[in-house]
Amino acid sequence: MTQPRKTNLETEMLVNVRDLAVTFATGGSTINAVNGVDLDLAPRETLCILGESGSGKSVLLRSLMRLNPARRTHVTGSIVVCGHDIQRAPERELADLRGSVVAMVFQEPLTAFDPVFTIGRQISETIMRHEGVSRGDADRRAVELLELVQVPMARQRLAMYPFELSGGLRQRAMIAMALSCRPRLLLADEPTTALDATVQIQIIVLLRRLQQELGMGLILVTHDIGVATETADRVAVMYAGRIVEQSPIAEFVANPLHPYSRGLLGATIEAAKDGNRLKTIMGAPPDLSRLPPGCAFLPRCERAVAECRSVMPSLRSPSVGRAARCVHVERE
Amino acid sequence: MSEQLTLPIRRYGQATNARIGEIEKAVQPLLSVRNLVRHFRLKRGMFNLSRQVIPAVDGVSFDLFDGETLGVVGESGCGKSTLSRLIMALIEPQAGEIAFDGKLVGSRDMPLKEFRRQVQIVFQDSYSSLNPRLTVEQSIAFAPRVHGTDRREAIAAAWDLLDRVGLRPDQFARRYPHQLSGGQRQRINIARALALRPKLIILDEPVSALDKSVEAQVLNLLKDLRAEFGVSYLLVSHDLNVVRYMSDRILVMYLGRVSEIGPVQAIYSDPAHPYTSALLASRPSLDPMARHTEPPLIGDPPGLDAADAGCRFRTRCRSAEPLCHQIVPKLTAVSDGHWSACLMADRNSGHSKTIMRTRSAAPMEEGSR
Questions:
Q1: Contacting residues of B for A250, CB less than 8 Å apart
Q2: Chain B contact set for A282 (CB, 8 A)
Q3: pLDDT, tens digit, for every residue of A243-282?
Q4: What range does the domain containing A286 cover?
Q5: Contact between B321 and A223 (Cβ < 8 Å)
Q6: Among the four A321, B28, B68, B118, which has the fewest Cβ within 10 Å?
Q7: Of B183, B240, B286, the CB nearest to A253
Q8: Domains (range + CATH), chain B
Q9: Which sign, positive or negative, has the C-alpha torsion A123, A125, A130, A134?
């Protein structure tokens, strides 16, 4: 990536997604995984996408790097990442982008790494591919990277295969590989879900520190509100393929707008005082192949009214920087 | 044993039918586990000749009382799932014994078949623990039929149980597991566990595979059923919040051993073992203004193959001293019903940071925990 950048990227949004819809064809039915998402990310911002399984959060994240299986996926809308039109970019340009401009950390590092190559080989290969440096230089960078993510005895670890490392070290190595070409945007899909509690908090603190030191944009996908409160500047809550609420994290925790957000926060055990029952959201998420025309959360909502049934509520913004898809939210 | 009498046991379902003698019964543990040991040999190296041994459960003892929920917490590889399988006799221990209702399991008084009628288990993976070729009602009625209930009666009981776990029998009884969501399947597993009217249900990570909103539904259901059926739970989980919400007492495991055991309030507000403190401090903060700046522990839990003399937590402990490399700490009482396996909990251990709040710092005698 030696060419001069086309526009002034420091002031421009890192991510600009408009009206994104992603559907998968499976068997006889069509799964509407993402249904009209608008999303922006400013440079150096950390956004958490919060949602349950099947909410479309991982599919949205993968679309940003065009990682969804091309043959079965139908995508409409526009995705611009760091000034590049991801939808229209030829495969060759995408291969340049992935790793150098935008990089991804996956949930399960054991399956994301290639089991037959050492950690060091996989990291230096990425550096050589994108920066055209010699193997020796790439190997030196790999050692620095492992030290950056606080892997003890970095030099020895580089000669190890993924299965020889513990879960926490593997995830650190995964982060080192993602950072190897100094990406401007880091995507992380449930990066701490597979880890133990004492290791999870280490990775959270590390990710936040790296994001600040390297000045990256960071999008974290998680189902865990705790991960969001530890890392995010802003949260986007997804339900049935739509962003139902976007808020700065502090305001989200103090005063969630959408009934689903309220339900999620109420269902956390911390919210239940000793001995009290947990507040629950009744029912289960909707079938993504048969979404209703109105609000998808309606069957589970305690405040549903007639107008929720006919059309999906538009985004309403009660204050600057906040918005929710609910008819009960007062506009500013 | 006298310490045990003062344990704050919350009892459920007895308000209406409390009888004289009920108090006496509460003293007798429902389940007693003594010095349970299970090591696994690692298959590694040419022809699996490696002699490396993993002490997954290494001398675990505890009591579980009638009507209480005992939570077992620890990180992956600490042996908590092996422990639950040992109790269910799904794998055999190499040493140690289990008594149920005061009778030795496997003896003539408590043969395995009778024990398994009284103790049931709910697994984490709700799908693989159900037979895909049986309908919901057949699955629930299966065990009662094995134990001699006639078919029509067993199915009727299954319908009743479906209703109690919050699924409409006319809608769900004839469905197959693949036609259900994860939360619904876990409700079926709970109904099936209740079908034999057991006294104890082992819950092995019952909500770990569920979404948060569904998790809350299932936890509430489990609490309701405990009151309704008067069962006791042994709840195994890695989730400290789940365990706190559900349990009366907590047992913390680290690398195959009990590091701390005590009433839930004591463990969460005043942990006596440095591992427990670190585990509690590792929970993500829910206040964005009070985020972690430093992780409480560094490094991963070491593999169990590193097991040897001394305290197993010493490699990650900030308070470790040379003494900790030599002495295996015994469970020591720090307050009523609250024990910690740390040299700092024992005033006479010689550790420089001995906790002075210790009231009676005598190491616990065998068999009294």
A1: 288-289
A2: 217
A3: 999 999 999 999 999 999 998 888 776 666 656 778 888 8
A4: 15-101+183-324
A5: no
A6: A321
A7: B286
A8: 2-266 (3.40.50.300), 270-282+308-369 (no CATH)
A9: positive
